[in-house]
Structures are given as structure tokens and as C-alpha cells.
Amino acid sequence: MWVSLIVWMAGSTWWHVCKIKQLCDAPLVASGSPSAEAIEAVPLSIVDGTSLSLTSSGNFGFAKSGASANLTAVKTELDSLAAYLRANPKKKLIITGYYHSTEVNDSKWPDLGIARAEGIKQYYVDLGLPAAGIQTKSEIQDAIRFSPDSLSGGIGFAFETPAATKEDALAEAQKYQGLFKPLDLYFNTGSTDYIQTADNRKFVEEAIKYLAANKDKKLLLTGHTDNTGNQAGNLELSKKRAGEVKKQLVSAGLPENQLMTSAKGQTAPKEANTTPEGRAANRRVEIVVQ
Length: 290
Hints:
By secondary structure, this protein is an alpha+beta fold. It has helices at residues 2-20, 75-87, 112-126, 166-173, 198-213, 231-252, 276-282, and strands spanning 44-48, 52-56, 61-63, 92-99, 134-140, 150-152, 155-160, 183-186, 219-224, 259-265, 284-289. The protein contains 7 helices and 11 strands.
């Protein structure tokens, strides 16, 4: 009796599944695995005209509604991009984060795209690149598909080369002539990051080696301003500029305990403050070995 019942139940199940639902010939898909329609990972490509071309068979990985990236498949390319930006300090990097309108944003940022882009920006800031040279954007892409709950990609890169300023010209005019020749660092308007050039990078590279071998020596960073505004305010501004340069040099590898800062405000102009060019020349931080 029990055998007859089991046979009857098995036959009924087979009839329902194979004949009514027509599922016996359907391909098997393991539970939790991507469907056959899931998109394949798009290889990462970072291109800047004819100057840079980086590709990877992998890409960034994000969880659905997640802001933290898995960089395993693209770390080599990201580090190559960092080297490119160091060699081309005037380049502005634009990082775009993509997101789907149905994703949930639990980050501190206005949307998940910005959150994703800011995470990649922080990676570069941690490597010592100036934050002012990296812009973040976001873009909804409802064509994004998840496989099954993860996203491959989600980040795009673009580049801009801003028009040269008079401060850029002043910075380029500062040539490395040895560690014991003072060097001036300049800032574009509204920026606390000094303008990097091949010559001031050479100064920093040599200073790292020199200070490592001479623990009793120091670098003195002296902030200066033009005469716009009041003297007390300019003294504070020059102090802030020197402090910002110190932070950036520490990030570049210089020992903090061998860096000193000083501030002179508008009291030691390099050029006359009677012209825009003269005032620009006076907005600087002087760096010298002591």
C-alpha cells in the first residue's frame, strides 16, 4: 500500500512539472548564481588622448547599494594613473560615479554615485595627490545591471588641462639649483595646494634623501602674501599657507619633525605690489634648508 502511494505521488509530481509546467527540458540554474542574461564585466579603460591608455580585463566591484569599491582587479592600473598624474601635475582628474535609481543610498554623500567617486578620490589623496586636482561627479545609469547583487564597473575617468595662469608661469620659472638655493612655491587663486612642477618635485626628492642622512637639519617653510587686505589678516594667511605646504610635504615623504614653518605676511615682498604680476609673485611659500 505504501509503495503504491509513493509511486502515485512521484507520478503526479512528474506530470505536474513536466507536462503541465513544461519544465523538464529547462536548463538548470544553481540557486543564487547569475542568470544567463546577466551582463559580463566590462574591462576597465582609462584614456587621456594619446598620452595615456590603461586597460584591465577586470573592473571595480561594488555591492548593490554599496559605496565601497573592491579594487583588486584594477589596483595596478590605478597606481599607474597616480604616477601619470604626478608626472603631469597640471592635469585635472574627473571621477564619475554611476548608480541605478533603485539603489539605496546609506552614505553621507548626496547620492551613491558621488559616494563611489569620493571613495576613489580618497584612494588618490591617501597616495599624496592633491585633492584640489580631483573633481567628483555622479550620473544615474538605469542601464546598469547587477550580477546578481554586485556591480562590475561603476566608475568613469576623464581629464582636463586648465589654462595656464600667471601663478603657473611663476611656479615654472622656479628652477632647481640645489638644496641650498631657496625655492618659492606658488598657489593658484582659491587653492591651498601649491603648484607642482618638475623642479620643485626634484627639490622634494633630494630633500627627502638629505634629511634622512642629516637628522640635525631642517627645512624652513616661510609664508608670504601680497599687501591686499590688512596686515594682521595677511600674517594669518601666510601662516596658513606655510602650514598647508608642510602637510603636503609630509604626505610626500618628508619627516614632520624636520619641517619648520614661519610667516611674514606682507612684510617681505619679492616684487612691488603695484601690479597684478607683482602681487602674484609675492603670494608664495619660500622653502630653504637650514
